[in-house]
User: What shape does this take?
Amino acid sequence: MKKKLSIWVTIAIGLILVLAACGEKSQEDVAGDLEENLEDMSGYKAEAVMEMNTGQENQQFNIDIWHQNESEEEDFYRVGLTNNQDEQGSQIILKNEDGVFVLTPALNKHFEFQSEWPNNSSQPYLYQSLITDVLNDEEAEFEATESNYVFRTKTNYQSNNNLPFQEIHFDKDTLTPVLVKVLDQDQNTLVQVEFTSFDTDPSFEEDDFTIDKNMETAATVDEPVSGDGTQGQLTVLYPTYMAGADLTEKKDVELENGKRSILTFEGEKNFTLVEETTEVQPTLSSPQEVKGDIVNLGHTVGAMSDNTLEWTHDGVDFTLASEELTREELIEVAQSVQSQEVK
Assistant: This one.
């Protein structure tokens, strides 16, 4: 009797294990579900907090993400980024039928990019980009936890090869992103995006993705500043990473509406850093065209062309130029221009 009971117990346990295994989806199943979920989605609105440890200081952004599937061939995006240490420098990455733009409403400035953003690079806060990276990586690792599906994939950062891996957590029930960790070669987390809300059935106004509306609505929140908060004042910042070069010259220039400092660095690789503060324009001007890429520097969003990286932070315009620095070195120098003041 005991032997028969033992056999039945063994069979029952085996059935339970088989049923449990049948109930858990495979990596291929989940990837297919993610792709289908994206195809069925007409748009979304999400909020997230992004922490970056890619420069001299940790930076934190609040991110407001909008996506609208305008047509089969065109998607509209609006990504609002607010740096908690520089709220007046809030920026918006905008893609509409006219192109790709980076707006800085408080300074009444915007760049127009000749760029394939966001399709030309990984974007840790965009649902489409995360799923694309999952589908494109044949060596992606997969794990199912109690509440999430977790993928570990390669990334595709055209302007920064120091972030080769990422870990993406999707909610099991909704298949929406919960957490993204972008990792370096040593598996250290340098960028983390934690989603706090994700609405898959949003409503949009007709002009939500226009430049005019985004410049006007965001500018009403931000108070225009220049330099260290005082009109016309320029506190010069010094890079802590100089790629083997030293500062050989600092030239200050008085402008009609502000000030400019030109820093020349010479050594293993030469480069020039220009810092300039000018009066905020009272009316919307034509966008400055950039043939290059959008680069998140950790403390702000920059515009990278062939040999130049431009960005605005705390009311100051920065231009870093070099014929010798690589793209990665340009980014590393720019990320280090944060807190070292030159009196």
